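Project outcomes to date are best conveyed with an example. Our students and postdoctoral researchers have been running inverse folding experiments weekly, and each run begins with a structure described purely in tokens. The record below, which covers 303 residues, was selected by the lab manager from last quarter's runs and is presented without edits.
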């Protein structure tokens, strides 16, 4: 056992899958702790796990519980996390702090990638990655998710970057860091709640097996780091980009007067957009996470 393995607790289901060589898909937990209200967060998490099982893979929801890195949660642990209050939102900078201090927290994309690699899991489904926030040229507010994608060899399946971000600058940073961004069956980048944006997808692949082959080729060539798969939300469940743009602008304008900065920005914006869209943003968020879980399971099976 390596020293890092001493900090990991595998669920019975994930442990059995590892020993049997079954495909496993990692899932983050900040979407539970900070991304959605209760009880929808718990219901969403259970449904996403069920979808991955339906596709022939095994879900591994990752979280920190009392200082232990949980690779797969029991139903009771997942339900407790969905109702937990004042838990940490963990990224690379504070993951080890939470472990050392026996804290509980939801793992962001970056922290989930770290834990997934420790557990030997190569595929991870999420909603949307973090990225470059609007106004980052003065605030320098850039998510650690981008650097993690550049260093940690995990395939991240998302609906692109969250549309509350500066998606164009996010793509520029990913390109600079050498992170492949692959549109799944699309030539344009999705915009989280919307299936299309005005930005082209840098690369395109149409089959899960091709994504798996690309990932393996990068490993064989010694190219470190992960890749981002941009998977559009189904069009019949999207909110058109032009409608969301107005809501996002209104929510963004409220940040400065309310003094909201740092890690509090994304949870505030998601909550405010839920209000401004009369709940529609949450329904679309759930739909895109489910869609990403299906694709991630297919990629894990192809690997």
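After processing, the design step wrote out the following sequence:
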């Amino acid at each position: 056992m390596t020293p890092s393995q001493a900090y990991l607790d595998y669920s019975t289901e994930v442990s059995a899958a590892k020993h049997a060589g079954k495909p496993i898909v990692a899932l983050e937990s900040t979407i539970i702790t900070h991304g959605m209200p209760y009880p929808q967060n718990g219901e969403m998490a259970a449904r996403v796990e069920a979808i991955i099982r339906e596709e022939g893979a095994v879900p591994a929801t990752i979280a920190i519980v009392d200082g232990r890195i949980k690779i797969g949660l029991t139903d009771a642990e997942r339900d407790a996390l969905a109702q937990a209050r004042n838990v940490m939102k963990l990224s690379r900078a504070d993951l080890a702090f939470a472990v050392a201090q026996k804290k509980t927290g939801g793992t962001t994309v970056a922290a989930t990638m770290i834990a997934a690699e420790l557990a030997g899991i190569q595929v991870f489904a999420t909603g949307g990655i973090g990225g470059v926030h609007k106004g980052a040229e003065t605030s320098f507010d850039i998510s650690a998710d981008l650097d993690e994608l550049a260093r940690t060899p995990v395939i991240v399946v998302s609906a692109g970057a969250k549309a509350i971000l500066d998606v164009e600058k996010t793509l520029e940073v990913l390109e600079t860091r050498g992170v492949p961004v692959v549109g799944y069956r699309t030539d344009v980048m999705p915009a989280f709640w919307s299936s299309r944006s005005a930005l082209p997808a840098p690369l395109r692949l149409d089959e899960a097996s091709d994504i798996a082959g690309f990932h393996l080729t990068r490993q064989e060539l010694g190219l470190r780091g992960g890749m981002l798969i941009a998977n559009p939300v189904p069009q019949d469940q999207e909110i058109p980009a032009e409608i969301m743009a107005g809501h996002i602008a209104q929510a963004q304008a409220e940040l400065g007067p309310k003094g909201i900065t740092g890690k509090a920005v994304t949870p505030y914006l998601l909550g405010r957009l839920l209000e401004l869209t009369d709940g529609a943003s949450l329904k679309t968020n759930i739909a895109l996470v489910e869609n990403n879980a299906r694709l991630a399971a297919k990629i894990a099976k192809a690997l």
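The chain has a mean pLDDT of 95. The chain has 14 helices and eleven strands. The training component of this project remains on track.
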